[in-house]
Amino acid sequence: MIVLGLSSGTSADGIDVAAARLELDADLVRLAPLGHRIVPYPADLRKELRDALPPAATTMQAVCRLDTRIGQAFAEAARLGADELAGGRADLVASHGQTLFHWAEGASVHGTLQLGQPAWIAGATGLPVVSDLRTADVAAGGQGAPLAALLDVLLLGGRAEPAAALNLGGIANVTVVRDGTPPVAFDTGPGNALMDAAVRRATGGRADLDADGALAGAGRPDPALLELLLAEPYYGLAPPKSTGPELFGPGHLDAALRRSGTPEAADLLATLAELTAVTVADALRPYGTADVFASGGGTRNPVLMDRIAARLAPARLRPFDALGLDSDAKEAYLFALIGFLTWHGIAGSLPGCTGARRPSLAGRLTPGAGPLRLPEPAAVAPARLRVDAPAP
C-alpha cells in the first residue's frame, strides 16, 4: 500500500505530510519513503489555534471552528501529498491531527484531544482515513504517548549495544531499546516549548523561535534559574509518563521567572537550552545507551544539539537520518505506519512503552469515496522494520 501520514506537533507550525510504500512480509515491515512536504498553516488559523491552547480559555464555538478549519488544512495537505508525493496512487491516509489538550495528571492520562475532522480529508482525496490515533491506548490505561516508540523499536531492535531515539519537538521524548529487556519510552520534558515561549516573550510575539540558536549561543546559563526549573516534580516521575504544553507552556516559564527574576534574553535562552539538555541526559543515563538518534525541529538548533551531545557523552548523538528516514519527516512516517497497521488489524502502540493494559488497534476509520474493504487481519505482528529505497 501507499499511505500518506499527516502530523502537526505541539509547536503548531504547519502540517507534515509524508508518503510511504509499505509492505508486510511475515514479521518484517518494509517501508520505502516516497517524500515529505511541510504545508504551513494559514496565518489566521495558526493564530486562532495558538489562542485556544492551554491555559487560555476557549468556547465550544472555537473548538468547532478549529476542528473544521484544521480538518480542511489537513485535507489540502493530503491532496498535495497524494498528487506530488504519491503520483495520485495513494491508498490510505493516516492523520494524527492537531493536539489541543493532553489531559495528564501526575503519572496518569485521562484523555487526549486531537482536532482536524477527517471527513474533510476523505472528501478531498477520496481515500479512507485513519484518525484519532491515541485515544484507544488511553482507554486501555496507557499514556497515548509516545507513539513513536512503535517505529523506534521496530527500527532499532537487534543492535549490539543499547540505543535510543530522541525526538526534539515542543516536548522531548525518548525510546530506549536494549536486547534482552523490554523497551522503554516516555516524554522527558520540554524540547523546544520553553525556548519558543521565551523568544515570543522577548520579542513581543514578533518571532517564534531562536533561529540557528543565535540568542542561546550568545548567552550563559543562569545557575539559579536552572536549579529552580529542574525542581519540577515531573522529572522525578517513573516512566511511562507523558506531558505537554499544558504543563511546560508559557505559564510554567513565567512562574519560574517571577521567583528568580528575568535574565537577559540570551542568558534565558541559554538556560532553557541547558534545561532540555540536562533533562534528556538525566532521563537516558540509567539505560547506558551507546547511540542516541535525534529527530525533530530541535535538531536545527546547533546550540541545543551541542549541549545535549556534551551532556550525553560518552554516548554518541547522531541524526535519525542515519537510520534511513528523514529526521524532519519521522513523525509523519510514523503515522503512515500506524495507519497501515490498523488497516491490517495490528495494534498501533506498545503497552510496555505507554503503560496500557493491552495492545490496541489505533484510531477510527472514515470511508473515502467508496465503501471500506479491509483485508484479512495479518496473522503475524511485525517484529522488524526495514527502510528500503523507493522503487522507480
TrEMBL record:
Catalysed reaction equations from the record: 1,6-anhydro-N-acetyl-beta-muramate + ATP + H2O = N-acetyl-D-muramate 6-phosphate + ADP + H(+)
A Pfam family annotated for this UniProt entry: AnmK
Main EC class the enzyme belongs to: transferase
Any one GO molecular function term: kinase activity
Binding site for ATP: 9-16
Enzyme Commission designation: 2.7.1.170
Segment forming the signal sequence: none
UniProt pathway annotation: Amino-sugar metabolism; 1,6-anhydro-N-acetylmuramate degradation; Cell wall biogenesis; peptidoglycan recycling
The entry's keywords: ATP-binding, Carbohydrate metabolism, Kinase, Nucleotide-binding, Transferase
Family: Belongs to the anhydro-N-acetylmuramic acid kinase family.
NCBIfam families in the cross-refs: PRK09585.2-6
HAMAP family attached to this UniProt entry: AnhMurNAc_kinase
Role summary: Catalyzes the specific phosphorylation of 1,6-anhydro-N-acetylmuramic acid (anhMurNAc) with the simultaneous cleavage of the 1,6-anhydro ring, generating MurNAc-6-P. Is required for the utilization of anhMurNAc either imported from the medium or derived from its own cell wall murein, and thus plays a role in cell wall recycling.
This protein's name: Anhydro-N-acetylmuramic acid kinase
Gene expressing this chain: anmK
